Amino acid sequence: MSKERIDLMFQTLKEKNEKAFVAYIMAGDGGLLTLRDNIQFLQESGVSLVELGIPFSDPVADGPTIQEAGLRALREGTTLKKVLNEIASFRESIEIPIVIMTYMNPVYAYGVEQFANDCELAGIDGLIIPDVPMEEEAIIHPYLKEKQIALIRLVTLTSPLERIKAIAEGTEGFLYAVTVTGTTGERSQIHENLGGYLQKLKEISPAPVLAGFGISTHEQVKGIGGLCDGVIVGSKIVDSLHFGKHEEIIKLINPEKTLVQ
Ligand SMILES: O=P(O)(O)OC[C@@H](O)[C@@H](O)c1c[nH]c2ccccc12
């Protein structure tokens, strides 16, 4: 399946005239044995794709909530190898695409080729590696391409237009539009020119554009999602799972569902 599973997901959403909702979670937060149930819960709540973070000791782009989740996961003894083995054991029971978000260091330690092989065995559909700029993708892209695993690129508010074009041209699966300057985490205010920025990205990018960073309410999900192809929510999901507030996640995606139940 791989990259194709992501493309199919967007195709299905388009047919239903719906936007994508991507949930980021930290692998191993709460123990790896909770991973399958958490992903199953997210799928049932209407999540279109799961972005699964790999805990790492030096997470430069992560804000406090994700950093703390990473520390909890590391204390549980979570490793990249264990995560991939765990996913392989339940992948068939989950339908939605699973994308891994990791820094490059754990992948180097694993061995790049072995990592690509094991991602394929685990049914991983795409990768986000925030500390590998497009100029350096050759260290991993050929191995992923062979396995049809998408390498999803990020653009930021501060990228110059020419660079945004080059990034968008070569992204696979979707384009991750970072909507704040800074690290991950909840923000009450959204960037003043977000509409213009996302509109520009939509014009430029051949792939769907998803907005992430600082989205934590249903109003933001609707508002920002309406400006592009969907949203990515991390910190709010991570905290809700950690504190057992699953209801909050349902509310974020579909508040009516909470009322009916
Ligand atoms: O937590 P937020 O603000 O909702 O943002 C999503 C983000 O957490 C997730 O996509 C992510 C976690 N760590 C990252 C590092 C780089 C890029 C993206 C990420």
UniProtKB/TrEMBL annotation:
Protein name: Tryptophan synthase alpha chain
Biological source species: Oikeobacillus pervagus
Reaction catalysis annotation: (1S,2R)-1-C-(indol-3-yl)glycerol 3-phosphate + L-serine = D-glyceraldehyde 3-phosphate + L-tryptophan + H2O
SUPFAM superfamilies for the chain: Ribulose-phoshate binding barrel (SSF51366)
InterPro entries, alphabetized: Aldolase_TIM, RibuloseP-bd_barrel, Trp_synthase_alpha_AS, Trp_synthase_suA
Gene Ontology CC entries for this record: cytosol
GO terms, molecular function: tryptophan synthase activity
The EC number(s) this enzyme carries: 4.2.1.20
Subunit-structure text: Tetramer of two alpha and two beta chains.
Keywords: Amino-acid biosynthesis, Aromatic amino acid biosynthesis, Lyase, Tryptophan biosynthesis
Record: active site: E51 (proton acceptor), D62 (proton acceptor)
Role: The alpha subunit is responsible for the aldol cleavage of indoleglycerol phosphate to indole and glyceraldehyde 3-phosphate.
Segment forming the signal sequence: none
One Pfam family linked to the record: Trp_syntA
Pathway connected to this protein: Amino-acid biosynthesis; L-tryptophan biosynthesis; L-tryptophan from chorismate: step 5/5
Family: Belongs to the TrpA family.
Record-linked Gene3D superfamilies: Aldolase class I
